Amino acid sequence: MQAKGTPSRDAIWLADIKGDWRGRFLALPAEAGGRLAITHCCCDYAAVPNVPALRRIWDSARRGYRNAWAQEFGAWPRVPGGDNWPGHHIHDLLHGGHPTARNNVLPMPPEVHDVANKAYPQCYAGDARWRTIGLDRPYAD
């Protein structure tokens, strides 16, 4: 989603979360579901000078954020062996993303987080890969 009044450079599709439910409603069988696409607009956000301060805020709040997440969505995902997945800031800290906003941090497997962190600078720089139209649905059921 593009920020109001902010020219878009490109965008990254970060996640496609699918939810399905089957059960009973008023004693009758029922089904529901939907998809949530999480994207990031590499709009013309200026880099901010206070990234170390924003990083410290996130570092201090990380445990509480994960606990709050767990109350609503279940335990914060972990790598087999015990380490927590990193929290990926959808609107990145370098470009003014809020370090603890509820809708700005998404758990992401470490290897995917590394790819996303390399893609963000390419997206902000207008790399051709982010200007190419991709699949309408980058998933298969």
Describe the model.
With 141 residues, the protein is an alpha+beta fold. The protein contains 2 helices and 4 strands; from the N terminus they run ββαββα. The longest helix is centred in the middle third of the chain and has 23 residues, at 51-73. The mean pLDDT is 82.
Give the helices and strands, then pairings.
Blueprint: E1 8-25, E2 28-43, H1 51-73, E3 87-89, E4 105-107, H2 110-124
Antiparallel strand pairs: 1-2, 3-4
Helical/strand content category: alpha+beta
Instruction: Report the C-alpha radius of gyration, rounded.
Output: 17 Å
Supply the number of helical segments.
2
What proportion strand?
Answer: 25-35%
Measured distance between first and last alpha carbons: 25 Å
Q: State the shape.
A: globular
Question: Helix coverage percent of residues?
Answer: 25-40%
Give me the side-by-side strand order of the main sheet: 1-2
Task: Report the order of strands and helices.
Answer: EEHEEH
Number of strands: 4
| Main sheet overview | 2 strands, antiparallel
Mean pLDDT: 82
Low-confidence stretches: none
Give a short overview.
The chain is 27% helix and 28% strand.
